[in-house]
TrEMBL record:
This is MarR family transcriptional regulator. SUPFAM superfamilies: Winged helix' DNA-binding domain. Residues 2-134 form the HTH marR-type domain. It comes from the Bacteria. GO terms for molecular function: DNA-binding transcription factor activity. One of its GO terms (biological process) is response to stress. InterPro entries: ArsR-like_HTH, HTH_MarR-typ, MarR/SlyA-like, WH-like_DNA-bd_sf, WH_DNA-bd_sf.
Length: 149
């Protein structure tokens, strides 16, 4: 299973699908900004430190990249809702439209890859992946709570 997960992560991290996606959409966006925009859309409003943790990048790099998304009008940054010292990013309407377009293009790609799968196989995979992701997220939360004690 570990090898399969590494292969999936590797595939999703390859530049080719994103480069193809950007050229099909004529996006004025650097490839490194795509995962950030999608994560902000899904998890926002979100602080830069939390976002950096989610994407496995350095805080300072993510901060510069979020500033770039802000310059492009795809996100806005504001004081945090829970902690005013934390700057949170949230997608704009334009950012949401772009994230939705990215989702559609990626769904098309996965649809092509799974063209010979049955609907039941697709549903089973989605259900099991959601369960695994929920368990992983729960593990992260438990670890943070343990570290805080």
């Amino acid at each position: 299973m570990h090898d399969a997960l590494l292969d999936i992560i590797g595939f999703m991290s390859r530049p080719e699908p994103d480069v193809e996606l950007m050229s099909a959409m004529a996006m004025p966006l650097e490839r490194a900004l795509l995962p950030l925009l999608v994560r902000i859309d899904r998890r926002g409003p979100i602080g830069v430190v939390e976002l950096a943790d989610l994407v496995g990048r350095d805080y300072t790099t993510v901060s510069r990249q979020v500033a770039r998304l802000d310059e492009l009008g795809l996100v806005v940054r504001r004081a945090g809702t829970r902690d005013k010292r934390v700057r949170e990013a949230e997608v704009t309407e334009l950012g949401r439209e772009m994230a939705d377009a990215i989702d559609r293009m990626r769904e098309e790609l996965v649809g092509e890859l799974m063209a010979d799968w049955t609907n039941a196989e697709r549903r089973d995979l989605a259900r099991l992946l959601k369960r695994m992701a929920a368990d992983m997220n729960e593990w992260v939360v438990r670890r943070k709570l343990e570290d805080a004690e």
